[in-house]
Amino acid sequence: MRYDSSNVESCECDSPHQEIIERIEAAMPDETELYDLSELFKVFGDSTRIRILYVLFESEMCVCDIARLLNMTQSAISHQLRVLKQSRLVKYRKEGKTVFYSLADSHVRSIIDQGYEHIRE
Fold first, then answer.
1. Which long-range contacts (CB under 8 A, 24 or more apart) does 43-48 make?
2. Cα Rg, the chain, nearest whole Å
3. CA atoms within a 13 Å half-sphere pointing along the CA-CB vector of 75
4. pLDDT tens per residue across span 66-84
5. Which of 97, 61, 58, 105 is nearest to 81 (CA)?
6. CB–CB of 101/63 below 8 Å?
7. What is the CATH number of the domain that holds 100?
8. Distance separating alpha carbons of residues 117 and 35, to the nearest angstrom
9. How far is CA 81 from each of CA 37, 43, 64, 114, rounded to the nearest angstrom?
């Protein structure tokens, strides 16, 4: 596919709008925070991880139950849970030899809900 720059609108002003630029520069997060944010959104780029998060909306669950529910291996689920845990989207608690996973906080559900609402519009 070839890029056609003739379809892109451009600005024909001779001088930048300095007051707008300065205001936005002051409000803009630093590069490290923007990088961390982009990494967080990459985690949501996998449908298996989204499915796991939806499961955890309903109840905390152990790996074997999540695997059975999603018809996947425990190893595959554990791998995805590790990614979600590293991104601080899920947390866990141990009860004997069983590890139960749940959403880390209410922000996780809000992010998913807003994304889902957006695609349904």
1. 43/83, 43/84, 43/87, 43/89, 44/111, 44/112, 44/115, 46/80, 46/83, 48/72, 48/76, 48/80
2. 21
3. 0
4. 999 999 999 999 999 999 9
5. 61
6. yes
7. 1.10.10.10
8. 25
9. 19, 11, 12, 22
Average per-residue pLDDT for the chain = 91
> How many structural domains are present in the chain?
1
Residue 108 has a pLDDT of 94
* Banded pLDDT at 5 (limits 50, 70, 90): low
Q: Has this prediction a pTM greater than 0.90?
A: no
- Residue-number span of the structural domain to which 103 is assigned: 47-121
Burial class (CB in 10 A: 0-12, 13-18, 19+), 101: buried
